[in-house]
Design a protein that fits this description.
Elements: E1 2-8, H1 9-17, H2 27-34, E2 39-47, H3 59-70, E3 76-80, E4 82-91, E5 99-108, H4 110-123
Parallel strand pairs: 1-2, 2-3
Antiparallel strand pairs: 4-5
Length: about 130
């Protein structure tokens, strides 16, 4: 079967990598191992470039190193969303102790990009 793979990079990182000693993943090889009888036409990796926090100024360079490694996989393309940062008020714990202003960062665009690529590829018969 001819297949395309759509990877939510943000969820992959926070669901399987963060907090572990593992930092490198050959997504192409992982897909081949998971789908040994299928022809993988495209792997689309959806992410957004991080905005480094003052407590972790090397965050962007580590991500860029990983993205350069991903770019060496022949049938993999990287599709970018973006991060939106804004201030919000959140309650302190325990409840009833007041509120504090915090900086909230959210990834935007990746979910829409995944859905759009999935639908456009289906429309173009880009996979079975």
């Amino acid at each position: 079967m001819k297949v395309n793979i759509y990877v939510d990079g943000f969820n992959l990182y926070y669901g399987a990598v963060k907090g572990t000693p593992y930092r490198w993943l050959d997504i192409g090889e992982m897909c081949r191992l998971l789908l040994p009888h299928d022809q993988i036409l495209q792997i689309k990796y959806f992410t957004a470039k991080v905005n480094p926090r003052p407590t972790d100024p090397d965050q962007r360079s580590r991500q860029e190193t990983f993205l350069r490694a991903l770019a060496t996989i022949p049938n993999l393309s990287i599709i970018y969303g973006f991060f939106l940062t804004h201030e919000i008020m959140l309650p302190l714990a325990p409840p009833g102790q007041g509120y504090v202003r915090v900086i909230k960062t959210e990834e935007k665009g990746s979910d829409v990009n995944i859905a759009t690529h999935l639908l456009m590829d289906a429309f173009d018969d880009a996979y079975e």
